Structure formats: C-alpha cells, structure tokens
C-alpha cells in the first residue's frame, strides 16, 4: 500500500516537473525582459554598435522582484511600452504551480485528482512597474494589486488636510492639500472619479468639520454631489453651467477679499503662514462643460494661481482631458493629478504630461497619482450608505439657510444664484 502511494507521489512530481519544463519556468523574467527589449527594438547605439540593456542587479521585493538595468547611451526610455513588457512577461505564464503546492497533497484523498487540480491552477497575471533614476528599474510582481480597498476610518488624519488617495503596492498614499493645494482628477467614465470625489468630500468633512467649506459644482445633473448639498459646510452648490458661472464669480470675489487681506495688506505668503485654519474647496465635476466659457476658465485659472495664498483649493475633474478642457494655464498651476484609465495616449498626456493612463488595467478604482513621479494606487471604496452615515450630523436643520446659499434659478428671481447671510 505504502509503496503504491509513494510511487504515485513520485509520478506526480515527475508529471509536474515536465509540465513546468514544457510551459516555461516562472523564474526567468530577467531573460524575458532582455529578449522583449531586443525584439521590440528598444536598443541604443554605442560606437556604431547596437546595444541593449544590461542587468546590473536583482532585488527581492514584497510580492516580487526588482530588476535594475543600465541603459545604453542614446537610449530613449520613452520608447519602453509597459503594456508590451507586461504582456511579454506573462507569455507562457500558464502555470502558477510551485513545488510547495505538491507538499500539500493529502495521502488520504484521491491523489491523481489533487495533482490535476494543482496543475490546472491558473497563474495570477504578473504586473510590472517602471521607474528611472539613472538606472531603469523594472519591478515584476507575482500577483496583481487588490481590486478593492475598503474605507477604514482609522486611516483618516483628523485636523490635517492630508487625504488618503489610495493604496499602492508599498503603502497607503496621502495627498496633502497644504503642500499641493489643487488637484486634477481625470478618467474614463465608470472607473472611479465620482467615487473618489465622494470619498474626498467625506474625508475633508470628517477631518476638518469646522474649518472646511465647499463650492460644489456638479455638472452631471446633480448625480455626483446632491447628497452633500445640504451640509452646513457647503456654501454654494451649482448644477448647470449658468449656476456654475455665478458660483465661480462669488468664490472668486471671496478669494479676492481674503487675498487682499492676508497677502497684500498683512504681507503673509499664504493662509498657513498667517495661522488661518479655514480652507475653501472649489470642486468641479464635469469641468469640460465649462471649459469653453472664457469667464469660467479665467476664474478657474485665477483660483489655481492665487488660491494657495487665500486658502482656496481647486479640484478639477473631467472625463475628457484634452488641451481644450485642461488648458496649459490650468495645468501649470495645478501640481497634482489623480488619473484613472483613459482611452488614449493623447488624453494621458493632456493629464499627466506623459503616457501611462491608457495602459492601466480596466479595474474601477485603479489610478495613477502624480505629484512629480507617478504612483499606481487602488483608490478607496466607500459605499453611499457609509457616506450618508458619516455626513448626516452635518446636515443643516430645516429652515436654517446656508451661510451663503446657491439655489436653482426660478422664474421670479433676477439672479440665478442668491446670497443669503446666516
Ligand atoms: N475605488 C474603487 N474600488 C472599487 N470599485 C470602485 C471604485 N471606484 C469605483 N468603483 C466601481 O465603479 C463604479 C463606477 O464608479 P464611479 O461612479 O466613481 O465612476 P465615474 O468615473 O465617476 O463614472 P461617471 O463619469 O460615469 O460618473 C462604482 O459604482 C463602483 O462599483
């Protein structure tokens, strides 16, 4: 009996070894990378000779391996296409079988069935990350990033303006609005922009309930921000281009007052230096709908330029990033981006000034966060129920008006947006 079991186990090992041989070992990524570079023509020339990348070292990292390459002289690293590289690394990656899987085979259960199951195990797709700091660093991860990172209140940072953007492979990533006051949010429809904005507003209210105020411009017909409109922190709420123009004019007027007082009269560099705790966030979704209006775009540019000093923060979200919807004056004055998957390289360049967003996997919440360098993150998922539970204590009691209220135009009103003092 024991002899039969033993020989069956040995047969299993032999079968799996020949399987791995025929399907390619998962450990030869370095040579695959070398071959992909050569085949794709990602080479340079030294003294008239074609030269390819040279592996300098390998480092074990969490969930994978980092390969560090020296590039030949004259190598244009912008040529390196991460999709081609990732696809190449995953070619023949049919088996995710490891030797330790066979150690889990139970002798008291049908052995052949268990071995078949192990051999049929589908390999997790490997993912890569590229970085360059004089050397080309290619990180190859054995498993994909998680598709969902749930909201966890312990990750909030009360009394700060640091907002959790998401989780990268290495750590949780925060955006500090004191450091970079404005942010562009871009991404194709259905991949997490609204979810991110909802999370952003909820986090700001949780972290700074007495210091944050908002102008919310919701040009998606009220779908994105309507659950926030009655909060005491929301001083203006607009949901069509005319209301948006009026709300922006009011926000600019207020900003002018603060700027004149803090920067011009008192001589401070900005609100932070002046020790002022209040911040005002102007959040626009979908910004493409006002991008052809010169007045609106002048105000947006002005807020992006002088908002740091006056305590105004701009969040500019669009699903159609182009040179028209994201004009260079706006881009130059906004120092951070969160970019979900985009359809084209041109859209990626309009948002990030480089390609990359078109190559993101089609996973809702997967995004590139960019300040100077790009970091791939999975943004935080929060349900509408959770948002509502967290913000409900801030809803103005019925009959108590906004400090400044923007209401939908009605026939008997001269101005579409009215200002009411509390
Ligand atoms: N961070 C996330 N983690 C997991 N799933 C997410 C995440 N963000 C969004 N999703 C899923 O994707 C769906 C669409 O997200 P969302 O409404 O934010 O997209 P959008 O880009 O704003 O689309 P649209 O422009 O059409 O409004 C959500 O209902 C949710 O199921």
Automatic annotation (TrEMBL):
Signal peptide: none annotated. Residues 411-422 have a biased composition (Basic and acidic residues). Keywords: ATP-binding, Nucleotide-binding. ATP binds at residues 187-194. The keyword ATP-binding applies. Coiled coil: none annotated. Transmembrane segments: none annotated. It holds the Pfam family FtsK_SpoIIIE. Residues 398-422 are annotated as: Disordered. SUPFAM superfamilies: P-loop containing nucleoside triphosphate hydrolases (SSF52540). Residues 169-349 form the FtsK domain. The keyword ATP-binding applies. InterPro entries: FtsK/SpoIIIE/SftA, FtsK_dom, P-loop_NTPase. This is FtsK/SpoIIIE domain-containing protein.
